[in-house]
Amino acid sequence: GDGPKRIDLEQMREKNLLHDRVEFLGPVMHHEVHNGHIFLNTSLTEAFCIGMVEAACCGLLVVSTKVGGVPEVLPRHMIIFSKPEEEVFITISSGITTDLVNAVSKAIKMIRLKEVVPTKFHDEIKEMYSWCNVAERTEKVYDKIWKLKTPPLMERLRRYYGCGIWAGKIFCVVMAVDYLFWRFLEWLFPADEIDIAPAFPYQKYRK
């Protein structure tokens, strides 16, 4: 693609004289993505990398730093993890190499030895991330949250107070103001006068 980091990458290629080994393709058509072999994600923070799911769905083996929610995105046979570069350096006889380099080398070796079956990746991803599956899991999360009991006010204040010497006090003040505002709204618009939403007809859509 043509992202904001492309200029930095091109400068790195110039600096290390890698013109004959590194080529920037720019935007790639959807039907050409599966011509690749490895998808590399080097994020230092990541909640959910949708790009990894799309790459694996196209049959690419994923190499990624093990950060945030990345370990929960794909099964282990579709992804190889490395530690974030800022954390680990491995010294070898020829110099210094990062853990990410070792992970990419492992991925290349697996592909050359045909230990990866990319044709099966699409079917697996289709089952894992079908809309029905995602909707069902989302429903379970909301249902679990809905059933949680709200802790007493003093318990919540105690938790906020423990967030730091100054931050804790500020959080408690904000929460107290928010609580008083909620009580005012409760008096102004009583809950028993608000229409209750009808129950969702689950059985109708499960047939």
UniProtKB/TrEMBL annotation:
Record bears the keyword Transmembrane: yes
GO biological process, one term: GPI anchor biosynthetic process
Keyword Membrane belongs to the record: yes
GO CC annotations, alphabetized: glycosylphosphatidylinositol-N-acetylglucosaminyltransferase (GPI-GnT) complex
Pfam families in the record: Glyco_trans_1_4
Membrane-crossing segments per the record: 160-182
An MF annotation (GO) of this entry: phosphatidylinositol N-acetylglucosaminyltransferase activity
Keywords: Membrane, Transmembrane, Transmembrane helix
PANTHER family, sorted: N-ACETYLGLUCOSAMINYL-PHOSPHATIDYLINOSITOL BIOSYNTHETIC PROTEIN (PTHR45871), PHOSPHATIDYLINOSITOL N-ACETYLGLUCOSAMINYLTRANSFERASE SUBUNIT A (PTHR45871:SF1)
Protein name: 15628_t:CDS:1
Lineage: Eukaryota, Fungi, Fungi incertae sedis, Mucoromycota, Glomeromycotina
